[in-house]
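Human: Not sure, check this?
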Amino acid sequence: MSPASHSAVWTSCLLLALLAPAAHGAARTPAAPAPPAAATAAATPERDPEALAALDRMGAALRALKQFSLTSDASMEIVLDDGQKVELDGVVTYKVRAPNQLFLELRSDRQLRQLFYDGKALSVYAPRLKYYAQVEGLSSTLGELVEDASTRYGIDMPLADMFLWGTDKAPKTAIRGALHVGGGTVDGEAIEQYAFKQDGVDWQLWVSKATSLPKKLIITSLDDPALPQYRAQLRWDTRTPVPAAAFAFKPPADASRIKLVPVAVAVVDAEQEN
């Protein structure tokens, strides 16, 4: 194994917990054939204007936040090769200052991962493993960081859509069905519940009536017959100031640095090894 390949393997381990909400594992069986056109037309879901307007309000509320802390109790279903579903629970914590500072922590019984971005350097750290990776010389906004981290390094941040709603990176044209389910409460707060359909996923959203911020999210993957789900319940703090120190990463003396290998390079190295 070459040094670059070795770094790629460790980077994969380091970033294992940074999973996108829709990444529930590969489907075990081929997708069902498309239904006849007539049946498809008959089954085309409606796009409720109120549900779509709620997304606009949520996007505007998210874009208006100058700083916030967010804690989310999250669970993800993983489908094993034999079809059994296993649920993995964890806590996602964000600290954010617009337009370009972010701290992310993913904590579970099995793993602890942290990501720091101070507007110039992106650092990923595994405190229990004592490994970290870092990319310097950046100047990305949070929306740009989310996209670049995913496409360039394969880092898909949980709940990353909150940095994209209300921008042209999250077009409503991708939504095939939108439904206003009704009112209710989450954590004692009045909400409105909505359900949406897109290619490959169904998702539900509970939005605060007072703030228009999302309070709960369920994403169901339709690409797997087992229909695995990602669930997140969100608790926001938009009042407590987030200090600049929250985004600064100083590696501990006993931590080892590894290279954050771009996805394209890691693929080439793997092919050459084979």
Residues 3-273 form a domain with the outer membrane lipoprotein receptor (LolB), chain A fold (CATH 2.50.20.10). The chain has one domain: 3-273. The two ends are 10 Å apart (CA to CA).
